[in-house]
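step: validate -> pass
step: tokenize input -> pass
step: predict -> running
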Amino acid sequence: MEAKVRRARQEDRAPLLSFIKDVWGGHDYIPGVWDDWLHDAKGEMFVVEVGGVPVGMNRVRYLEDGSAWFEGARVHPDFRGRGLATMLGENSVRVARARGVKVLRLTSGSTNRPAHRQIAKIAFDEVARFSVYEPTNGKRVKPAGEAVRVRPTGLAEAMRLLRGSREYELGAGVFWHDWSAASLPPETVRKLVKEGAVWRGGRAIAVARKGGEGRDTWEEVCFIGGPQSDAVMLVKSLVGRSRKVAERLVFVPQGSPLIHLLRVEGYRRHFSMVLYERRVAKG
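step: predict -> pass
step: emit ->
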């Protein structure tokens, strides 16, 4: 039967969620975000159908740094191994390129080798690995040290601290928000500063935001970098301020010495993932 990719429609919800509801032991987030995704002007959702029946989906989200983020790729178990995920990925590359996007990114769990092989087929390269840490068993953390919001007058110094940190280098120069990664050029940092999301503690620098999917919300330390002791104190201060949500996440590139200190402080690894990137040639 012929397979084709098209834009998602509301009537695709039932046939797709009929199998997506069982992904990750029934904890897939897509049922909670389907309606938001379908009507989000900052993204586009696609469906692959076989014989007129929707059997897979994915989404392209356009981020604040001008990049495109690929997410939500799902294919019915009975139709895997037929190249449908690759069709969805290649379609998303074409769509993003037509909009003039030059940088495409996506992520996958660090142990999901079938996904890694599929990602390689659409010419994405691994650029970094990250682990996400959270306080053990959701315990409360007392603020430690002083976290100070960076003001617009401190933008140049913030950029210097960001780009001079080992974490910026190890993490391909990105910050995380809502499980997507965007780069940190001065114009993006300027917006984050204006938003009040950039913090300093000693010589450490951080980006902290609220995140969410559907009805679920959490607090994120989206980027943390700088001298180890200052950086850990800054994390503790930011996490200790978060009293209104149960989940508090800290994104750290693998290879950073901060990971050891976070473990010593009682943080546990929640999830590890691979960041992939594809640069689109001009023309």
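step: describe -> Residues 3-101 form a domain with the Aminopeptidase fold (CATH 3.40.630.30).
step: cleanup -> pass
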